[in-house]
Amino acid sequence: MAERKIFAGPRLRRIRRELDLTQTAMAEGLGISPSYLNLIERNQRPLTVQLLVKLAAVYKVEPDALQGDAGGVGPLREVFSDPLLAGEIPGEQELSELAEAAPNAAAGVVKLYRAYREQAKRLSDLAELLAREGHETALSSARLPMDEVRDVLEARPFHFPGIEAAVEAFYAALAPGEELETRLKEWLRKTHGIVVRSLPVHVMPTLRRRYDRHSLRLFLSDRLSPFDQLREVAMETALMAFPEAIDAVLAGLPLTSGEARRLARFELARYAAHALIMPLSTFQPAAERARYDIDVLRARFRVSYEQAATRLVSLQRPASSPGGAGPQFFLMEIDSAGNVLRRAGAQGFPRAAFGGQCPKLNLHAAFSQPGQVLAEAVTLPDGATFLTVSRTLEGPQAAFHERPRRTALMLGCPLTEAAATVYGEALSRSLEIGPACRLCERQGCLSRAEPPMTRPLGLDEMAAGLSVFDFQ
């Protein structure tokens, strides 16, 4: 049977030094030459089973102390996986050698790295705090272009009068009637020769839209809902119909790079698309009549919940404008991991007053009740109160083998303005229920499952109510 060889030179050297022995003294006790012990300590010769037995007998060294483990390699691997050091270590062997040869030094490196990460996190938090108060920081220059765009748009009112005016003029000339998407496609075809086509998923597996400048065709993925397809058509129309208005707003944004300006232009085109689908002149009074009920508005304008909620945030106007200023809505969207995807506000997202990072917000609870609208009043430690309305959103249609995209959107406003909304009623009024459908005479109940025993059914060929069990 072949004897097992163990290369543990650095650990043997450490044990020898702890015993305060020279190489000559330890070699004499083991019955080997000092030069051979030197080769063992440099991992040029193995520790055989016979030597392990002698070490245990002469110096009371347990074999486990020489065999060691990889416990010190894991933290070092974390250190050198940092992008700053990713190219410094060629492989796992060198990390193992460092952990074995100088464990105390390795532990010091790990401790120093963790302190560096903690300080970086504190600086990041400090920079965010200063940014909320309008102070520029040196850290902002290291952020990605998308981060820069988000910071700029989140810090200002989500309302662009120049784009709104251009949309209103274009919409009035378009005279779309009830079929906006048809009129927009017709305008793109007649004015610019652009034809809109929907393509199946296998043709556009990774794209939601693609505009081919050579063939003048706008391709939309079948993954998109009808609402999202309409928005894509409206975005293309906005970019073609009033680029000057979008560029004028873009020129006024304090962006530092061409890439940031390109991304901001896309966000402004999305804003213009929402304004085109839900023109301010009709959406504003409709929102006031519906008391800002998002579900009523989405049905009225044939848009998605997300589109209607986003448009509500952009309604903020000066109090002197026609119709006055509505509730100061703001919104935040996150994914199931808590990553913030976007923020916007009628006066800028209220980071200083609201924050938005509390795990108790109904924004997080929405994931456990998909599709349900959760309205709640919240109070911050300083006494500030807000109305929050949260609901999950479904992303593009996923295939059977794909995991669907689901996010949560929270719409909020100061609680003092909640009375202007339908959601404010839920905070002070109880839910109207009955003992059972058979015994309940509430009319217009969307949840009715059976007709009441006390009333005859009100079947009418000329009119249909909200329930199949309408009664007289």
From TrEMBL:
This is Transcriptional regulator/DNA-binding XRE family transcriptional regulator. It comes from Rhizobium paknamense. Belongs to the short-chain fatty acyl-CoA assimilation regulator (ScfR) family. Residues 12-66 form the HTH cro/C1-type domain. The keyword Zinc-finger does not apply. Coiled coil: none annotated. Keywords: DNA-binding, Transcription, Transcription regulation. The keyword Lipid metabolism does not apply. It holds the Pfam family HTH_3.
